[in-house]
Amino acid sequence: MYRSLQRLIDRQSWLNTVADPLQKFLNSIFPQQVETGASQAIQNLLNGVWLGHPLHPMLTDVPVGAWTATLVLDSIAALSGSEHLEQAADLTLATGLAAALPAAVSGVTDWKDTYGETRTVGLLHGLTMAGSVLAYTAALAARRGGARSAGMLLSGVGYALMAGGAYLGGDEVFDLGYPVNQTAFHQGPGKYTKAMPLADLPENTLTKASAGGVSILLVKQGSAVYALDDTCVHAGCTLSDGRLDGHSVICPCHGSQFDLRDGTVLNGPATMPEPHYDVRIREDMIEVKRAAE
Ligand code: FES
């Protein structure tokens, strides 16, 4: 089933026709690499920088749970004829609709920084979820207008669309790996390991090195040498190809900004800290070891 679905999605070239102008529009509202100002603060809030974890999956639990409750309450109300349960079902339906808005806004903010297959599957996920919201909105209107049976039918359509959208959302994360921590399996050296001669490290320059089988970003500023994993936690781009900004590095792909001293996320779309390394100099060699979290 999974492979058939992938093939079906691959054939939907119209998705890219929609995605191109939509991403362009979103990036005009939320430009990448702005680093300061209200736009960046809102992006950080919606991505989940403050949470240390993407915000979107947490927010989606509310409509999914509320609409599951609607389905259960509707079923029991239909069997028992209880008006109280009908009212409870309508209330959970409306709760799901109210919660769908922030979930959608956070999801769109994450989606604008996707590309390739993650962009296509992400768009399909969003469109399916939008269809679910429309069906539930129509269901609520029908219920309020006294057409309960039609309202229940429309809720069923909404639930089926939501389940399909949730499947695609799971595919985006568990199969395509967005926005999974791209350094999750980078252990790095557990004890001090040589990275490069100190004399070879230029001042204030993002420099790529390697230690213990992991690519490391090194930066020398005066007497201090900082070391981070060179793979961006957000989508795997190379931080040493990015830009140095004071005590921070800015990723070349989507502008995530990390503090060189401890890997803290200063700006998203990354939400998890970049792994950082303790540094010592022994016999003019830079040695690094993974810092305790
Ligand atoms: Fe997206 Fe680094 S890969 S910000």
Describe this structure in words.
The chain is α+β, with helices and mostly antiparallel strands. The chain is 50% helix and 17% strand. It contains seven helices and ten strands. The chain has a six-stranded antiparallel sheet, with no helix packed on it. Strands 5-6-7-8 form a four-stranded antiparallel sheet. A hairpin with a 2-residue loop joins β2 and β3 (214-221). α4 (56-80) runs antiparallel to α5 (83-111). The longest helix has 29 residues, at 83-111. The structure holds FE2/S2 (inorganic) cluster. FE2/S2 (inorganic) cluster is lined by residues 232, 234-237, 251, 253-254, 256, 269-270.
Keywords:
single chain, 293 residues, alpha+beta, six-stranded antiparallel β-sheet, four-stranded antiparallel β-sheet, elongated, binds FE2/S2 (inorganic) cluster
| Gap between N and C termini | 41 Å
Count the strands?
A: 10
Strand content: 15-25%
Task: Please tell me what the overall shape is.
Answer: elongated
Strand order of the largest sheet: 1-10-9-4-3-2
What kind of sheet is the major sheet?
6 strands, antiparallel
Q: State the oligomer.
A: single chain
Number of helical segments with 4 or more residues: 7
Q: Which small-molecule ligands are present, each listed once?
A: FE2/S2 (inorganic) cluster
Q: What's the Cα radius of gyration?
A: 24 Å
Helical coverage, percent range: 40-55%
- Spell the H/E element sequence: HHHHHHHEEEEEEEEEE
